Amino acid sequence: MIYDIEYETMPREALEAIQFRRLKATIERGYASVPFYQQKFEAAGITPGDIQSLQDLQRLPFTTKQDLRDNYPFGMFAVPMENVVRIHASSGTTGQPTVVGYTARDVDTWAGLMARSLMAGGATRGDIIHNAYGYGLFTGGLGAHYGAEKLGASVIPVSGGNTKRQVVIMKDFGPTILTATPSYALHLAEVAGDMGVSFPDLKFKYGIFGAEPWSESMREEIEEKLGLVAVDIYGLSEVIGPGVAMECYEAKKGLHIFEDHFIPEIINPDTGEVLPYGETGELVFTSITKEAFPVIRYRTRDITSLNPTPCTCGRTMVRMNKVSGRSDDMLIIRGVNVFPSQIESVLMEMQNVEPHYQLVVDREDQLDILTVMVEVSESMFSDEVKTLQGMEKEITKNIKDYLGVSAKVKLVEPKAIARSQGKAVRVIDNRKI
Amino acid sequence: MQAEQISVFLENKAGRLCEVTGVLAEAQVNIRALALADTSDFGVLRLIVDHTEKAKTALKQAGFTVGKTDVLAVEVPDRPGGLHEILDLLQSEGINVEYMYAFVNVTGENAVMIFRFDETDRAIATLQAKGFTILNREQVYSL
């Protein structure tokens, strides 16, 4: 089923006309109200008037996550604060997350996009949606929530955690749609099994999973263990949150990008050159309807390719393939973005601790486990075990406080961390994705 | 008055202790006393040796993290209740033992134990006031 027949099945020509009109308005507004964009355009010798076609978008400079950080917290907002009704933030370096804002119209746009997404994923009015995405600064929980209400479905705002209670709710309330990170979905099934509840016997028909990368083999595992149809959703807070692109349950072959709101490009991450359809590179987005926080050529660092061939579901919007990796070293741990540099700054801020570390990620019992190995230098060494254990605890706590992710800290001997050609290997990801 | 102890950080993996003793053997260092404190992940090896600096340098060169701590080597009367007298005295003074371990040798009538206290100076004064013998560095290393 299609929520917004007019836009989601619009002929390409009409869609491109709308895209160009909206792009031009976005660029003019960004230039006029965000000093960052004005300076960036001027440095590149471009004015909004130079944008005469969709192709001209390629002439504009990129926006990076670092740019957003440099303008922390509200420097990228294009409207005065009295027009901002919602603020979200994604984890950032110590004390400096990426902050995004929404006007009332943005919140409504987003809810509409999530309503489209939920329906593409098999949900409709009359469904009960068990929303296990985290509520809070993270866009997952509230994004899915507003979309569910917009769709007219009944939403259970259960959020993440307290898994046993979730199983009881699933058993008693009989939800038909599950929204969660894929790893948490598998964890739910595991806990349900331990409690003697057969997950496939619950009433779920569809599961809408995202916020972390997952593979086709993981899809098969989820569908088998949970007894539902599993579909992929994509989004990031900088662009709007979940609902930027969505797989349809009919085809399950790539995620339709809602191009009437976001223009996608694939670039060579090293040269910035725009690549044609079908080629693999870094995904770049320009928002064309957002008011409070427009992004122009935002580099997502996600690696994928675009597929323009028409889909069996009837949607005309281009599909992006499942994200296959990152062009930077970001890790996604249980839906939380973690950069090795963030762990480094946590260690640097601690007295006597030297930033010789390595991150090891494993998936045990369907949950991501992050282990931070820290080399014991002479300055942090003590002959008392309790002092060393206290240090382990303090590092664990600081990582949790600053990054919002639970990590196991392990002290190791100096030089225990493998160095390849003199450069420390910072990340070992043992997850099979 | 205080003896020097070296401590070594060890990951809990096979053969690490053996590597330490190997390095010390190579450097012609004699181990006088030792204790190992461990958790599931790591351990701390504490050593009293005859040549502290030589041992420290050799272990560092072999890539170990090495620390140095001042500890007290106290003569303990070698009879029932001998250790209890010392601990009872310190307990009554509110001085805590961080850790302790026994020495290999004995000096005549007495055993020797290595102590690490939370308040070293007060421990020295308290013990000496009651007539207990604390060995000095040279005495410890030549035991």
What's the layout of helices and strands?
The complex is a heterodimer of chains A (433) and B (143).
Chain A: H1 5-8, H2 12-33, H3 35-43, H4 65-70, E1 86-93, E2 96-102, H5 104-120, E3 128-131, H6 139-151, E4 154-156, H7 163-173, E5 177-180, H8 182-194, E6 206-210, H9 216-226, E7 229-236, E8 241-247, E9 255-257, E10 262-267, E11 281-287, E12 298-304, E13 306-307, E14 319-320, E15 325-326, E16 331-333, E17 336-338, H10 340-348, E18 357-364, E19 367-375, H11 385-403, E20 407-412, E21 419-420, E22 423-424, E23 427-429
Parallel strand pairs in A: 3-4, 3-5, 5-6, 6-7, 18-23, 19-20
Antiparallel strand pairs in A: 1-2, 7-8, 8-9, 9-14, 10-11, 11-12, 12-15, 13-14, 16-17, 18-19, 21-22
Helix pairs in contact in A: 2-3, 5-6, 7-8, 8-9, 10-11
Chain B: E1 3-11, H1 16-26, E2 31-38, E3 42-49, H2 52-61, E4 66-77, H3 82-92, E5 97-107, E6 110-117, H4 120-129, E7 134-135, H5 137-141
Antiparallel strand pairs in B: 1-3, 1-4, 2-3, 4-6, 4-7, 5-6
Quick gist of this model?
The complex is a heterodimer of chains A (433) and B (143). Chain A has 433 residues and is α/β, with parallel strands linked by helices. Helix content of chain A is 31%, strand content 26%.
